[in-house]
Write the C-alpha cells for this entry.
Amino acid sequence: MNEENREAERYDDMGKVNCPDLCALSGNLINISKTGLMVHFPVPVSVDIEAQNEYELKISLAKKIGESPLVLVCVPQWVSEVHHETEIGFKALYSPDQNRFMKYIAELADFGKDDNLEII
C-alpha cells in the first residue's frame, strides 16, 4: 500500500498477533496506526478481501511485555503473498480496549518526535 494513501501515520513496531480465524500460527506486527496495522504471517494465509469479514486480532506488544494483549476488530484491506509467507494490511474498525489503544498510539507518536533529537 502506498504511503500517500494512508489515513494516519504508521509507526514501525513489534509484537505477536493472534487471529485463529485467519491462521493457526501467530503473525508478527510490522507497523501500526490509529486506523490500521500490517501483519506478517510465516505461512500462506487465505483471505477473501471482497467478503469484508471482520476479525478479532489480539496483539501482544513487545514494548508492553506483561500487559494483556490489545484487542482490535479489523477488516483486511490488502494481502501480499511472497515465498509462502503472507502480509496483510488491516483497517481497524474498533477496539474493546479503545482508550489503551489510543494511548499507545500517542506514545508511539511522542517517541517518534524524540527521534529528531541530536545525539551527543
Observations:
- The chain has a mean pLDDT of 87.
- The longest strand covers residues 70-82.
